[in-house]
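Handout, page 2. Input:
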Amino acid sequence: MKISLGQPIIIENVSGAEGTVGVGRTARSAPDGYTIDMGQLGSHVIPGAILDLRYDAERDFEPIGAMGSMPQVLYAKKTMPAKDLQELIAWLKANPGQATLGKAGVAPQALGALFQKETRTQFEIIPYRGEGPAVQDLLAGHIDLAWGTPASLVHVQSGGIKAYMVMARKRLNIAPDIPTAAEAGLPAFTFSFWWAMFAPKGTPKSIIDKLNRAGMEALADPAVRQRLESIGMEIFPPSEQTPQSLGLLVRTDIEKWWPIIKAAGIKIE
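Output:
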């Protein structure tokens, strides 16, 4: 985007409250195209179901375009007896409430709740402050399962942990031996953290279009694509990189995940 726009881009990482501190700052910024939010499912969809926000994730932003998504992977300690997902589900049913699953953030907890509902299993969900600590406990055998990004596949390749499925529409190029959820027996079970750009409400359409074109040009660059795909990110096809597609994506995920989160009584810990 820096090359397409012909000017430098300053990146400011703003953390706190599931990303809502930074998102809220963007919502209050001038709609002039100089403040952009790189948001994701965990910052633009999930918090609205559990927090009293001072902004609306749909009404207070102009969608610019979706960039890519990183699917979650279901990992297990290496001594877990199940060889595949169906054996794991059978094991969980035979041992209700005995397994532990580590998660970092609210979205993976919602995913855990949905998994239990879809498979009619029960296990304890343990919160962690990040994927790293959860995977370390998985490597040590302190927990049985964990959700994680493709970044932890390095431990599968070294034999330290197992991976039962990747929650994507197709197998990952960096892990072609790991089946998708559909291939493993859960056809409707996909979950990816998408990343996308948003601008404050009222940003002129001409600016939104210019920023969208710059984003699409960056994603079309072979070097950029290779780097993103090497870490397990799926780049959205051009037809899904439009502002309209991003707006629909946010609305669809709100309609899907808010009822699940509220029904499970999930809170930020």
